[in-house]
Structure formats: C-alpha cells, structure tokens
Design a protein that fits this description.
- This protein is α+β, with helices and mostly antiparallel strands.
- It contains 16 helices and 21 strands.
- The strands form 7 sheets. Strands 1, 2, 3, 4, 5, 6 and 21 form a 7-stranded mixed beta sheet that branches. A 4-stranded antiparallel beta sheet has the order 12-13-9-15. The chain has a two-stranded antiparallel sheet with strand order 7-16.
- Helix 1 (16-27) links the parallel strand 1 and strand 2 (32-36).
- The radius of gyration is 22 Å and the shape is globular.
- The termini are far apart.
- 53% of the residues are buried.
C-alpha cells in the first residue's frame, strides 16, 4: 500500500464546503484528492444530521447552479426511490419531511447518496479520489507554502499527500494549527472589531455550543426507552444562569427576544399536522406523503435542549476536548431519556413518551446518534479581509443601506446572525442581517500562499460566523475555493495576486459566473431587504 500520493489539489475535510470544492476543481480540469475523517461525505447535511437552513430566495435562479442541482437531485432521489403519494410526487417543491426549518427537510443518508452520485463521474474519470476515514495529523511547510499533509488511515498507518494547493474544509479548521497558519478562535473583542454585539474584550474560550443530533420516530403503545444515561441526574437538575428553566424541560428561550417559551414535542396528537411544537420543526419524513403503512414520521432533534455549552472544543487539551464530546453525547441521550420517561404532556397529567424510538439507521450509527457533533464554530484564518458585523448587520449599517458591496465577491448568501449559547455563559445572540456577499479576501490567509479556507474557517468573526456558517453559504465558499485553486494552477499566479490584480480578479469571477453558474451579487432591492 502506497504511503505517498500526489495531486493538483488536496481538499481536507469532506463536509459541505469540501464536496463543493472537489466538484468545482474537477469540473475545471484539475485532479483533486478529497479526504474525510468520518465514513460519510456531507458534513452538516449528513454526518452531523442537520437539515439545511437556507435563505428565502433559495428556490430562485439566484442560487448557485451546483447547489440548485444538489437540491433537485434530493427531490429526484425521493421521486425515483420512494412510494410517494401522487400529490407529493407531483409537487415541484417536494419537501420530504414538511419540516418548518427548511423547504427541503430530508434524511441525512439521502444526501450521502446524492453527493456520491454527483462525484461519481469525476471519480470514474480519474479527477477525484475520495479517502474516507482519513484524519489529518501533520503538515509540512516550506516558507509560505504547505508542501504536504499527513493523514491517519483507518488501520492506523499514515499517508502523505503532496499537492500544489491545499484547501482546509475541515469542521474545526484542523489544518490551520498543523500548518502554522495564523488563525483565531472564540470571540473577538469590541475593542478590536468595533462590532456592536461583540464582547467588550476578546475571549478565545467563548465558543458556540455544539449539538449531538439524532433522529426519532414515535410509536405510541410501544416501549423503546433507552438505558438511563450516566449523567442523567446531573442534567436533570442543571439550570444555566442564563436559562429560564432546567436543561431537561420544554422551557427554553426565544432566540431573538430572549423571552421564555414553553414548546413541547407535541402540541396535539402525534401526526396531527403542522403545529408550533418541536416535532414538526425539523421533521425529515412526513408519513402522509408516502403510500402504504411502512412509514412513520421521523424528526431530527437539533433543539435548544441538546446545545452543549459547558466546555469548548478549541484552545483546550485533548482530554478536555474528549470530555466535551462525551458530555455532548450524554446530554443528548439524557434529553431523550427524559422525553421517554418524565416529559409532561401538554394536555392532561400524562408524562413520558416511551414510544420515541431512535433511528440510527437514518443517521448511520448503531447507538442512534449522528456520526459526528454539529459544529457551529471553527478556527478562523487571519484573512486578507475579515467580514465584520458592520458589513452585514442591519443594526450596524446605515439605515436602508443594505449589506456592504464587495468588489471581489465569490458568491452570495443570507441568514440571520445566529449565535447559540456559548461556552462562556452568554445566551443567544440572534440579530437581523442583510443578504450578503462572500468576499474573496476572506478565503485567503494573510501569509500562506497555497492554502485556502473552504468552510466555516474563513475570515469572519465570532459574530459574523453566525450568518456565514449555514449549508448553502458553506457550499459557495467551498466552490469558490476549488475554482480559485484551479484558476491559480492554470494561470500560474497565487490567490493573493488574483485578489489584488483587477484583470485576474475579473477573469476569475467570469469563471465563476460563466462556467460554474455562480451568482456574485444580489439584486439591489434584495441586498437592502429586511427579513426580521
């Protein structure tokens, strides 16, 4: 077995951004190796089991062609392989789960199948090589170049990959410390960024909560109660200083107003239809859209009760990080056990829903939880340009100005600035943002010439990461990084030159728009649009 490989572009991290980067690189004629630490490509969409959060214009022609293709393939996957009702099959905007969080709530493994289909022709052509369960453990550098990355194989042996360009698309920016790339973690201070919603001073250990998600179905009359988790008694009595009730309860915080709300899993009878409850919010299979009796509703639990904010993942030693990951898993299982045994019913005196059943077959695990935790915040490169709240936040911009226009835009996106409770004990920060652009300068490190950020590790702040971290934005970031690597190889220029040279920048942007079908700017009326 070879211990060394050579390629044009190495993409480390097979999440949403990594997949988009590999596709773009291959389409533009270059060979790419795509590595992933888990057994599934897709990151947020798959191994982390988070239905896509998307902008209000996602069904329009403003959406990047490749991401629109991914979404249509998801719908085709259900039409081709599932016994849909005639009404569901005919719906051009088919939403398999009818969940409220997205217009396309689907199973994680369906996204795995579609991603494999999208990569398949490029793998057959020899342009894409996928290495699953390969984790980066070291990087070699020479001056301002990353010369090689060493990956740990599933059998414990090492594989070294050399490449002209290296893209970090890992969930936590794992290559940055390995390659000595300047980066930040946690929260910047208002004294440095001037952002209205930043902390007064920086706190590197102030990081967004992680969540270990899981899929559930409900079978009334059956008992699927799990074993009592080890930390159940602790979680059952935990009340955070910034939270209005116990961690294991239906009581939580409305993110925007910070008012207390009581939102149970069911408002009425299970399966009774849309309601203001937890069950329908991220439902990924709606039984009524399928024929026969084999199907039940399945929902995806990514709810405030499983946000783990006790311990950060970054800036700590390995033992502390392991404690955090174990704690997140224990919290999720404890919340499930509480729902099965003690959760009060919204009507009457009943408690517990023992018919709640884990669907590990849907999330790809034996224990029922997702393969990996949902990561909201990564290490972030010190970039040529850093996106601040003053560029995209409604309250931080002049009245009616819309978002900042970036001449070096490589894509567009939109989401509220949405920060979950943090490891420093800060509650939600959920504020309005304008539809925004992705500046090329945010993908380019301040020093290293041949490494690009291709995911949540771009030059944002703790604050603006809250709106740049979602699925379609990460896809566009990865696509732009992959295209940049191919462009630089073809023209023999580094990314920094492309950004600063107007001719190169224009040529690269035409490559994005004309060849890949990327939208670089919102229409002005949308750029100024407010969606409270």
């Amino acid at each position: 077995m070879s211990t060394e490989l050579r390629t044009d572009v190495l993409v480390v991290g097979g999440g949403v951004g990594g997949v988009a980067a590999a596709l773009a690189t291959a389409k533009l004629g270059r060979k790419v190796i795509l590595t992933e630490a888990t057994e599934w490509l897709g990151g947020q969409l798959t191994s982390q089991a988070v239905p896509p959060d998307e902008n209000a214009w996602i069904e329009t022609q403003l959406t990047a062609v490749s991401y629109a293709d991914f979404r249509q393939r998801i719908r085709r996957h259900y039409r081709d392989n599932y016994p849909l009702t005639p009404r569901a099959a005919a719906d051009p905007l088919l939403n398999p789960g009818l969940g409220h969080v997205s217009r396309l709530c689907h199973e994680p493994r369906s996204a795995v199948a579609v991603i494999d289909q999208m990569l398949a022709p490029w793998q057959s052509a020899g342009r894409v090589t996928v290495l699953l369960r390969h984790e980066p453990v070291a990087a070699d550098t020479a001056g301002e170049q990353v010369t090689a990355v060493t990956l740990r194989r599933p059998d414990g042996s090492d594989l070294t990959v050399t490449a002209d360009y290296v893209l970090d698309a890992t969930e936590l920016g794992d290559l940055l410390p390995l390659a000595g790339v300047e980066h930040v973690i946690g929260a910047e201070g208002q004294d440095t960024t001037g952002e209205p919603h930043a902390l007064p001073v920086a706190d590197p250990l102030n990081q967004q909560a992680i969540s270990w998600c899981f899929a559930l179905e409900h079978r009334p009359g059956e008992d699927h109660t799990i074993d009592r988790p080890a930390g159940y008694d602790v979680w059952r009595t935990t009340v955070a200083p910034f939270w209005p009730g116990p961690q294991l309860s239906w009581i939580d915080v409305e993110p925007v107003t910070l008012s207390t709300r009581n939102r149970p899993i069911f408002r009425g009878e299970p399966g009774s239809g849309p309601a203001d409850d937890l069950w329908h919010y991220r439902r990924i299979l709606a039984a009524r859209q399928f024929t026969g009796t084999a199907f039940t509703d399945v929902t995806l639990v990514n709810w405030p009760q499983i946000d783990y904010w006790q311990t950060p993942l970054l800036g700590v030693d390995d033992a502390t990080r392991a404690t955090a990951l174990d704690g997140a898993r224990d919290l999720s299982l404890s919340f499930l056990y509480w729902m099965q045994t003690e959760a009060p019913h919204p009507v009457g005196d009943g408690t517990g829903y023992p018919g709640l059943r884990l669907r590990g077959d849907i999330t790809g695990t034996a224990d029922g939880l997702a393969i990996a935790p949902y990561i909201r915040e990564s290490r972030r490169i010190q970039a040529e340009f850093t996106v601040l709240e003053q560029h995209v936040g409604v309250d931080a911009r002049p009245p009616g100005a819309g978002s900042k226009v970036f001449a070096d835009s490589v894509g567009i996106g939109h989401y509220r600035i949405d920060l979950h409770p943090s490891t420093a004990g800060r509650t939600y920060v959920d504020i309005e943002s304008y539809p925004f652009q992705i500046p090329l300068g945010a993908l380019v490190p301040i020093r290293v010439d041949n490494l690009l950020a291709a995911g949540k590790n771009i030059g944002t702040t703790h604050i603006t990461n809250g709106c740049y971290r979602l699925h379609p934005v990460e896809w566009s970031i990865g696509e732009a990084a992959g295209a940049m690597a191919a462009y630089c190889l073809d023209r023999g220029v580094p990314p920094r030159k492309v950004r600063t040279d107007h001719t190169h920048q224009a040529d690269y942007q035409r490559l994005l728009t004309d060849t890949l079908g990327v939208t670089l700017a919102w229409p002005d009326e949308i750029r100024r649009h407010r969606t409270p």
